[in-house]
Design a protein that fits this description.
Length: about 80
């Protein structure tokens, strides 16, 4: 007997996201640029679900190996 199953959707990732506005200004001394100052302004924080193959989730890095979610590690941390 042979069975073939196709997934209906991707894995989902629940993430807290923040968009940042970044400004970079030159530091001038006697008309010469001697460095730069960067200002980072965080926007509104939101929590959302994303498909794991979504462009929004492209920088997501899991804290476990594929197919090994670490249930033993979670259990050991909760055991006195």
């Amino acid at each position: 007997m042979e069975v073939q199953v196709d997934a209906v959707g991707d894995d989902r990732v629940y993430a807290t996201t923040v968009n940042y506005t970044i400004w970079e200004y030159p530091v001038l001394v006697d008309g010469q640029t001697v460095g730069h100052i960067v200002v980072i302004d965080p926007g509104v924080t939101s929590q959302n679900w994303f498909g794991s193959k979504s462009i929004v989730a492209q920088n997501y890095r899991q804290y476990h190996e594929d197919n090994n979610v670490g249930w033993n590690e979670v259990f050991l941390r909760q055991t006195p």
